[in-house]
Amino acid sequence: MLSIVDNRTFKRLFFQVLDHNPTHEDMIAFFGRFQAVLQARQLTVQGITTDGSPLYPAAIRAVWGNLPHQICEFHILKDLNQAILRAVAQVRKQLAIQQPKLGRGRPKSSQTKLVQKRQRLQQKISDLFEYRYLFVQHHLTDAEQATLQRITRALPHLRVLRQIMDQVYRLFDRRCRTATALSKLAHLRQRVQRFSQLRQVLKGLFSANVEKALTFLDDRLLGATSNAVERGNRRYRKMQKTVYRVRTYAHIVARIALDLFREALMPPRLATLHLLHFARTKP
Predict the structure, then answer these.
(1) What span, in angstroms and rounded, lies between the C-alpha atoms of 142 and 148?
(2) Range with the lowest mean pLDDT among 3-7, 90-94, 124-128, 250-254?
(3) C-alpha span between 41 and 35 (Å, rounded)
């Protein structure tokens, strides 16, 4: 399902339901029809926000030319967060391999040091699993900072990962401009390049989509995320779990068209309700 939603009012503007996965030709045709509708109403597109799909850039250039194109900030951060969590999971596996092997039964007195080492490593593995969210959480309290320092003791590369994640979050700070954020991104990439292991973990940081995800910093009206579309589509995915017939092509089109009709009638309905409420409360 292809959908265009106003990122300011969260209202669906245009949609198309396909019976196959969309292609570049489908996207160009879809955007072209939407542009024709806008031209008939003497409206223009000032900017567009999408996820990181490779289908959009060529279609946007073909229909609107050099239009400000914002890649969803949420999708970029999600990919980087998953990479960080995979790196923490890899450290847990390496610690599990380092655990000394003990025979079955109660350990002997001569194995006391081995038992203690195994217990320390097992506690370290458990802490890294329990507090793994601290490596990707945006803001940390003083107590969480102390916990992070404790569980990363003797693991300096994990502390570097957390520092890099803090710098990534600062890239999307609305208080700076796109040029400033791109300069910070260049310095961050140079820092990551110096570490071969980090370069493999954070290879998504070198994607061209990261630069496009910073476009919104120069435009206060351009949405930073594509949550408007995601929120609209979530309604239909939830509906399809309970109402089986909504999965068919005809019913999906009918449901979306009904919602568009309801949204079109909403302003006069709200005005009527407001007038009735005012009339009832009037002495």
Answers:
(1) 10
(2) 250-254
(3) 10
pLDDT for the residue numbered 35: 92
d(CA 201, CA 83): 6
* Residue 51 identity (one-letter amino acid): D
Candidates 237, 212, 241, 247; CA nearest to 226 is 212
Which sequence spans correspond to the domains of the chain?
2-72+225-281, 74-207
pLDDT at res. 283: 62
Give me the mean pLDDT over the 179-200 stretch: 87
pLDDT at 16 over 80: yes
Tokens of 278: 């005012």
pLDDT at 111 over 80: no
Q: Within its chain, how far is the Cα of 95 from the centroid? A: 30
Region class of 10: left (phi > 0), else alpha (psi between -120 and 50), else beta: left
d(CA 79, CA 56) in angstroms, rounded, equals 19
pTM of the predicted protein model: 0.77
DSSP H or E stretch at residue 258: helix 249-281
Whether 127 contacts 148, CB under 8 Å: no
| Cα 206 to Cα 182, 211, 276, distances in angstroms | 12, 9, 57
Q: What is the DSSP letter of 66?
A: S
Considering only residues 76 and 274, tell me which one the structure prediction assigns the higher pLDDT: 76
* pLDDT for the residue 174: 85
What residue spans of 68-111 are helical by DSSP H?
73-98
Answer for the pair 150, 162: CB distance below 8 angstroms, yes or no. Answer: no
CA distance 5 to 8: 9
**Torsional class of 65: left (φ above 0), alpha (ψ -120 to 50), beta (otherwise):** left
* Region 2-72+225-281: CATH code: 3.30.420
